[in-house]
Design brief:
- This protein is an alpha/beta fold and 274 residues long.
- Helices cover 30% and strands 22% of the residues.
- Helix 2 links the parallel strand 1 and strand 2.
- Helix 5 packs across helix 7.
Length: 274
């Protein structure tokens, strides 16, 4: 589908709109439907001191740490899933003090994003009692104003500069569809100041008007769309393709270099598997 729209940009132009030190919320979860082509473009353009916000990052945060692009992370579990365990370059960056970590549970980070989305300074959250996270992050608690006598932890609003999500389809006006679970992408796009969408393909605006209930992000919220088929590689984008586990295994091989991985693509990876 060939269209002309001011919102349709190249991946390089989209990444160029991210300044050093920006706060980015990255969609998807672990190895699934993350904006991984966008992340690699940030590395190519030499971004530095980024803040990454994500409940369950993996490859994206790990490769950004490996490339020296991250200054701070606000994250829950950071892993390459059961096949590969924890994210090694992220872990190394934290242990060496190369990045600042604001450690969260998925629910606490979601609460902070919800507060930003709702336009309120904080959001109550359950399940924190007995954890060290509240003390580590100096979160406050408030007494239940309705008389139960209980204290409730409240998470301050988290408003990223930009939310970047990977979607199955987008319209030329920026309307966005995701098939399958959308993880935390909806709340990220409501909390962030700006929204970028990397889409597998464009679909006519008429198809979004015919099925408005499938639209996750309305076009008026989206600043830019880049069309990148297989842009979530080496991760998956259901139902189009699965995780490329051999490519992830090569990435995890400490004998290999970041440059070698950056030179790979879905096409060269398929050739290597053949």
């Amino acid at each position: 589908m060939t269209v002309t729209s001011p919102k349709i940009v190249s991946l390089a132009e989209m990444a160029a709109r991210v300044t050093d030190g920006a706060s980015l919320a990255l969609g998807g979860s672990f190895l699934h439907r993350g904006p991984f082509a966008f992340v690699r473009e940030l590395i190519r353009q030499g971004r530095r001191n980024l803040e990454i916000v994500k409940q369950s990052p993996g490859y994206d945060l790990d490769i950004l740490c490996r490339a020296g692009c991250v200054g701070k992370a606000r994250a829950g579990i950071v892993a390459m899933e059961g096949n590969f365990g924890l994210a090694p370059w992220y872990r190394r960056a934290v242990e060496k003090g190369e990045i600042v970590l604001e450690e969260h549970a998925c629910m606490t980070l979601t609460a902070g994003l919800r507060a930003a989305a709702f336009g309120i300074p904080f959001q109550p959250v359950g399940g924190v009692h007995g954890s060290d996270l509240a003390a580590l992050n100096q979160w406050a608690s408030v007494r239940d104003p309705y008389g139960s006598g209980r204290d409730v932890w409240v998470i301050p609003a988290i408003r990223p500069d930009i939310a970047v999500i990977h979607a199955n389809e987008a319209s030329p006006e920026g309307d966005t569809r995701i098939y399958g679970t959308f993880n935390w992408d909806r709340i990220m796009t409501r909390a962030a100041r700006r929204v970028f969408v990397v889409a597998e393909k464009l679909e006519p605006l008429e198809s979004f008007r015919e099925r408005p209930e499938l639209t996750l992000v309305p076009g008026f919220m989206v600043e830019a769309v880049a069309v990148v088929p297989r842009g979530a590689w080496p991760g998956s984008c259901w139902p189009l393709y699965e995780v490329d586990y051999p490519a992830v295994e090569r990435y995890m091989d400490t004998a290999g270099s970041l440059a070698e991985h950056m030179a790979e693509s879905p096409e060269t990876a398929e050739a290597a598997h053949a």
